[in-house]
Design a protein that fits this description.
Layout: E1 10-11, E2 15-19, H1 25-31, H2 38-41, H3 48-58, E3 68-77, E4 80-90, E5 98-104, H4 113-129, E6 133-137, H5 142-150, E7 154-159, E8 165-168
Parallel strand pairs: 5-6
Antiparallel strand pairs: 1-2, 2-3, 3-4, 4-5, 6-8, 7-8
Bound molecules: coenzyme A (COA).
């Protein structure tokens, strides 16, 4: 992969994935409210201020040392924000692994939104990276492993220091 890819608008039949910006913070607060979202990923619902600070960092598009591209999108359905997807990719490496994650607000879950958004993300990402796709998922997070399976990822049995399992595609990702 040459250079740092920038997130671009991605459209699917139902959804629009909008490159993340600080102005999304306010409307994302209610989407990320509640406790169920954090059961497997940890943390708590952010305030508008916390989210604005987080989005200011993430929307720069790269880590401070320039080694990683940070690609973030808000998922929009019929105009309303419903969740987000993100990818982290090493810059300058040939065929780097894209580490992806997905979150859909409690009110919008169970309707295939994460699967549709993540598929579109991979469709955009893979021609740019040419490498495999991976996600760290807590054992027992059945909704997330359900999404990963639909994307063609498989559990590797390898756990990170937080006890999350590495799910990955064969190389190159399909
Ligand atoms: C994981 C998450 C993004 C899934 O969002 P979603 O839009 O509801 O997912 P989808 O509707 O695309 O579901 C995909 C598959 O997951 C499975 N699934 C979804 N919800 C499930 C649940 N509560 N229990 C078990 N399996 C579930 C199903 O197999 C589903 O496939 P199906 O349509 O054939 O039934 C959402 O639950 C979420 O945001 N969870 C909290 C944050 C999180 O854990 N993120 C993942 C970090 S790795």
């Amino acid at each position: 992969m040459n250079g740092v890819p920038r997130a671009e608008l991605i459209a699917t039949e139902r959804l629009r994935l909008e490159p993340l910006s600080v102005h999304h913070a306010r409307e994302m607060v209610p989407v990320l409210a509640g406790t169920a979202i954090y059961r497997h990923i940890g943390g708590t619902a952010p305030t508008a201020q916390e989210l604005a600070a987080r989005y200011a960092g993430q929307s720069v598009g790269a880590s401070p040392d320039g080694r990683e591209a940070w690609l973030n999108w808000i998922i929009r359905e019929q105009g309303a924000a419903v969740g987000f997807v993100q990818a982290t990719v090493a810059v300058g490496a040939p065929c780097p692994t894209a580490y992806v994650a997905w979150v859909v607000g409690e009110d919008f879950q169970g309707r295939g939104i994460a699967t549709e958004a993540a598929r579109a993300l991979l469709g955009w990402l893979l021609p740019r990276t040419g490498g495999p796709v991976a996600a760290y998922i807590a054992p027992g997070n059945l909704a997330s492993t359900g999404v990963a399976r639909k994307l063609g990822l498989a559990g590797s049995g390898q756990l990170d220091e937080d006890g999350e399992e590495l799910w990955r595609s064969a190389t190159p990702a399909g």
